[in-house]
């Protein structure tokens, strides 16, 4: 098929999933056209089946807010028409789904039918989408899409709870490329960070409030009171300054390293003993899946779709949001010599069920089913 993929090109779960999906589809022989405002971060190589179309946003003194959605819809019309696409797949409802629905209307008026598939990722539903300033448009564009998927059962449930959605939503979970995300031998790196055999705890996120990075630091602080440990924080975002201050306040600044936005996160995960994800909300938790694929057990909250991924007592533990005491107790249990190896092995086994080789054919079937109905 010729597939147009629309996503946020920056670091962040939905953009990563969309880009990896496009790469996988291209590998399977599909022609994939990315339509975004800048080159997706993980699309930095040549492949004969991959194309990139930049959305040009025309500014004008009258516009306090340049109308990105219109520029995006216009670009979709252009690409569908001239590249003769068979299907548009948009990731993250706002504003991609409504722009796609508009592009489809325009194309229809010119005698071109193009099916629109929308994938809901999380905050487009649970945080931003349900806000009254967006809700009517999100509801409309979900109902108007030709196919809708959600990345977890919990997100599907939340969508029905918060929006008047009349159509079926198919759950297609996120996936992982196990050839990229696997435990690599990086002993020199481990020795440099943990010279005295300390346990290595890792957290990766966009440092937004919803990730509760405060909890990460407080759990680590308590862990380090019992076992010698180091914390690596990967990513960046609005909470970073505050988190640095908290580390100083708790007197653990020397045990914590801020690595910023890393491309090769699998190298860090390869030397980790434990991954922390205490999020307030998390529709899926792709970062935890990346850790598990690198044989790292997960201590997480039980928010949203996380329990569908991190199996309590098997691949790590899940606790109520904010229950730092319990998360610390569980972290120490996992890190003990007696249990760590078993949790690591279980994490990998669970990650294998989300292998891209398993999930990609589900998307391919979904596309052909949707295309057949249009
Ligand atoms: O919150 C983020 O990390 C970014 C956000 C996004 O759309 O880029 O992530 C959401 O989508 C990811 C990919 O499907 C999921 O793994 C994350 O759980 C989800 N984030 C939230 O629900 C908070």
SSE inventory with pairings:
Blueprint: E1 2-6, H1 13-27, E2 31-36, E3 50-54, H2 68-83, E4 87-91, H3 93-109, E5 116-120, H4 123-126, H5 135-144, E6 147-150, H6 153-162, E7 170-171, H7 187-193, E8 199-204, H8 213-226, E9 229-234, H9 240-249, E10 256-260, H10 265-269, E11 274-277, H11 286-293, E12 298-301, H12 306-309, E13 316-319, H13 324-335, H14 340-352, H15 356-373
Parallel strand pairs: 1-2, 1-4, 2-3, 4-5, 5-6, 6-7, 8-9, 8-11, 9-10, 11-12, 12-13
Helix pairs in contact: 2-3, 3-5, 8-13, 11-14
Protein architecture, described:
This protein has helices at 13-27, 68-83, 93-109, 123-126, 135-144, 153-162, 187-193, 213-226, 240-249, 265-269, 286-293, 306-309, 324-335, 340-352, 356-373; strands at 2-6, 31-36, 50-54, 87-91, 116-120, 147-150, 170-171, 199-204, 229-234, 256-260, 274-277, 298-301, 316-319. It is of the alpha/beta class and 374 residues long. The protein has two domains: 2-175 and 356-373, Rossmann fold, CATH 3.40.50; 187-352, Rossmann fold (3-Layer(aba) Sandwich). Helix 8 packs across helix 13 and helix 11 crosses helix 14 (340-352). It is elongated. The two termini are 15 Å apart. Ligand GMT is lined by residues 12-15, 17, 92, 121-123, 126, 151, 174, 206, 210, 281-286, 304.
């Amino acid at each position: 098929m010729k597939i147009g993929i629309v996503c946020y090109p920056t670091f962040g779960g939905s953009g990563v999933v969309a880009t990896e999906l496009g790469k996988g589809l291209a590998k399977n022989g599909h022609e994939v056209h990315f339509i975004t405002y800048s080159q997706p971060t993980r699309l930095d190589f040549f492949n004969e089946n991959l194309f990139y179309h930049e959305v040009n946003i025309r500014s004008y003194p009258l516009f306090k807010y340049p109308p990105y959605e219109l520029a995006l819809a216009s670009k979709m019309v252009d690409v569908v028409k001239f590249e003769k696409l068979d299907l548009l797949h948009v990731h993250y409802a706002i504003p991609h789904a409504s722009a796609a629905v508009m592009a489809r209307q325009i194309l229809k008026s010119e005698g071109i039918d193009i099916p629109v598939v929308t994938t809901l990722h999380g905050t487009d539903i649970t945080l931003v989408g349900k806000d009254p300033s967006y809700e009517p448009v999100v509801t409309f564009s979900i109902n108007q899409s030709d196919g809708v998927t959600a990345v977890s059962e919990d997100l599907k449930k939340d969508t029905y709870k918060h929006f008047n959605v009349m159509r079926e939503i198919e759950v297609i979970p996120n996936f992982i490329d196990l050839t990229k995300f696997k435990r690599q031998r990086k002993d020199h790196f481990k020795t440099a960070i943990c010279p005295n055999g300390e346990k290595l705890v890792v957290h990766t996120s966009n440092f937004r409030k919803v990730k509760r990075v405060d909890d990460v630091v407080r759990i680590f602080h308590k862990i380090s009171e019992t076992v010698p440990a180091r914390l690596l924080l990967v990513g960046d975002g609005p909470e970073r300054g505050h988190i640095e201050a908290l580390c100083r306040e708790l007197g653990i600044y020397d045990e914590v390293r801020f690595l910023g936005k890393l491309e090769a996160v699998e190298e860090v995960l390869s030397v980790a003993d434990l991954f922390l994800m205490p999020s307030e909300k998390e529709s899926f938790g792709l970062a935890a899946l990346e850790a598990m694929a690198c044989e790292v057990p997960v201590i997480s909250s039980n928010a949203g779709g996380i329990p569908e991924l991190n199996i309590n007592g098997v691949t790590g533990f899940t606790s109520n949001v904010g229950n730092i005491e319990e998360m610390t107790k569980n972290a120490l249990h996992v890190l003990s010599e007696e249990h760590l190896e078993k949790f690591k092995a279980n994490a990998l086994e669970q990650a294998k069920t989300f292998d891209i080789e398993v999930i990609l054919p589900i998307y391919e079937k979904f596309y052909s089913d949707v295309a057949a109905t249009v």
